[in-house]
Fold each of these.
Amino acid sequence: MDDALVIGGTRFIGRHLVEDLLAHDYDVTILNRGTHENPFADDDRVSRIEGDRTNDSALEAAAIEADPDAVFDCVAYYPKDVQAATRIFDDCEAYVYISSGAAYGREEIPKREGETPLESCTADQAADDSGETYGPRKAEGDRAIFAAAERGVNAMAVRPCIVYGPHDYTERLDFWIDRVNRFDRVVVPGDGTNVWHRAYVEDVATALRVVAEQGDAGEAYNVGDRRLVTLEEMVDLIAAELDTSVEVVTAGPRELEAGEIEPDDYVLYREYPHVLSTAKLADLGWESTPLEEAMARSVADFLESDRDGSEHDPGRENEERVLGILDTF
């Protein structure tokens, strides 16, 4: 494969995917509405087509103009998006859909492709745009991949867990980096052993390309860090990269109540562990970035940005009340 079309391609996962494809000598075209700054505007190796991926005519025009060997769909949020794309790009050598670990419908450790059931999805959920239906919509997109493969389309899905790294507009990890950077005491909900599997963004980009090149039609592939760390261990990794030390103060629901905080108010906290098996992807030759290196790049990018994760902040004044209560024990 030589020519790739990336639907999206300018913000986070898509941006890193374009960089990975360029590093592997692909000719790249991106398709998007142009509502976000294009980091490749001055790169003559990247062509751009303006169009809305929810408009089938725009996809059909892009299929003709780009004539891609591989299509990477970074912004398919509804099952109908996947259904349309797998029809329009049915003669490509590979169509890869970014699904999600949220597509799984049962709590298992770890969640495995083809074994752990997917979320069900009603017709109303398939058209809804709320966060509550994100997992069901992604699962229905996966089922559209399976159906396309049965029609002979070389369609595959990649299921990342929580993605982090440079240019992350969600600012989820940024909240924790900012906390460690500004305070010598960091409140962590629960007992610190919470595990919510995360995936470094450059590894997700590599996974998308590897699946396009080597994956099997109708298959889904989980992607996540090959080394799992708890929330407390993640804070310690951040502190090491910032060359600082912090006291991690764990607080359960009763202690957090003093600051009118719920454990779920903290981003990247999940009461029940969420772990994806990545063995199937590793069998294709994919490897993950060493965690210290991934965190170093993430912290460096944070320090160069104006992001602070403040939209996820439960309130430092609230935390100070919690710390005050804990100090009396």
Amino acid sequence: MSDASITTTQEPEASFGDYVALLKPRVMSLVVFTAVVGLLAAPVAVHPFIAFCAILFIAIGAGASGALNMWWDADIDLLMKRTARRPVPAGKVTADEALAVGVALSGLSVMMLLLATNWVAAAILAFTIFFYAVVYTMWLKRWTPQNIVIGGAAGAFPPMIGWAVATGGVSVESLLMFALIFIWTPPHFWALALFMNADYENAGVPMLTVTHGRRVTRNHVFGYTLLLAVLAVGTAFTAIGGPVYLAVALVLNAQFVLGAWRIWRRDETVAEADKYKVEKKFFRLSLLYLFAHFGAILAEAALRPWGLGGW
């Protein structure tokens, strides 16, 4: 038998980019940004090198959570168009490799943050990784339509970690930043679910659109958006707010409430006919919404030493 007649099938070798994708870099960017805002908005200055190290370890912790999520969710990721090209379901990284990366980076990030800063920041980071990987990914996501509501806490902890890096503790201000992300998460993800419902149905994920239908989901989007608007505008009159933040909050929350109202009054037939144009627009606005609010908090912190920030 000649060598030419022998064929072998090899698994595609993972590239560096595949391992980066395993860490969910887009989610990581939001984590890093909100953690930076929490750190810089705190009333205690942090040495630039310590701040850099802290943000790096927080980012690594976020990446570890992403890897653990992809390890556990590989089966349902394969069934959804939005996630089928992720490294594990695409066969570029094995599930065992994803687990190993996630566990190793989890331990590294928490240990290094503890050494670089303080035990409060490290403890919150450790709890964040546990909450996202175990409580949300392994339990809530496949068990309850409130998965996004409760699980949203995982994405809301980073500014609290940044604040704890600077102050060594938790305060009303850091809890307000937590609350902004926590209340923002349901309308953000439910808007996505309205036009990606087939993915969740195919994967058997009990998203609210699957278990209760789009009409109920639209009601929830509007209700949470109203609650978020009150919280966001009210934050302007706290220690992390000010006139710049108030201006941003008023404009964006007016747009956000209007978008949620349009979603609430939509008829499903019309929504299907225009391919969920209004829902997709609201989802895109939700991304700008969070970055702009935290950017405004950061602007107030930057202006404060000049006597211009805050009230």
Amino acid sequence: MSTSGSGHGGGRPSPAAAISTTGLRKSYGDKTVLDGIDLHIPAGSVFALLGPNGAGKTTTVQILSTLITADGGQARVAGHDLAADPQAVRAAIGVTGQFSAVDGLITGEENMLLMADLHHLSRREGRRVAAELLDRFDLTEAAKKPASTYSGGMKRRLDIAMTLVGDPRIIFLDEPTTGLDPRSRHNMWQIIRELVTGGVTVFLTTQYLEEADELADRIAVLNGGRIAAQGTAEELKRLIPGGHVRLRFSDPSAYRSAAAALGEASRDDEALALQIPSDGSQRELRSILDWLDAAEIEADELTVHTPDLDDVFFALTGSTSPTSSTSPTVPTQPTYPTHPKEEAR
């Protein structure tokens, strides 16, 4: 894992990169949006770019998909130099933005055939490809209906189907599930997994940390125009000490006794709850339970929290999770008795 670069080393050859960047920069006036971005995204994988609103995620997608030019740095997409051969890059990629490219005034089938025309497919080939993709995305029954009548999930599926008309090797999905209900979001996740199984590389930006955790082989967190950290979800979760055990009591006297014994634990007097740092291992849980038994203190509820991407996001960006109205708790490091039975005596 790396805090700024690709994180490959140790003398082993890196997997073939579908996308690679070195020192990518972009500014608008005196505002620096990207300040030296290094990425290495292997072919046939899902890469997720996370960051607060305004972090530069969409700008990164726009540069790599040739919609805007970088101010500095180098990038290769599908084996082509982004600056020297943008047309070859365009021929190898597909882009689905935050806002649907679907034309609501025409039918789903007509949207597909329009994309086939733009890709210079013959009429017969265009109809074949359109029919196959409409079937693949479960849109055949709605194909003759105006796209304006489609649900949000259907429009998103049609949008991706249109992107696939040109058979791209790399697809950029810029917040593809924003605004979708949970069922539609899970359907979209399955579509993305199937694309990768077929050898497509997916570059995903998302506001949903669960989505990145579910889908991405590698994740990068963008903050202040720089990559704060990147790696697998598990590597990123190990960056911070957010694991803890939460004990909740209904008996105020039991809560006070436990709080006094665990003086450095985080307290929530209103909820009668204590928070104890823990890695969630069986050994640590047994130690806590043994200590409670030895001290003759009964907790009504014990929950284990291991660091998740919400914690990582908060720790690396200093902002609240995009999917939560409250900040994830990253507790201080109180101590609890190593040998609870001895301590209780």
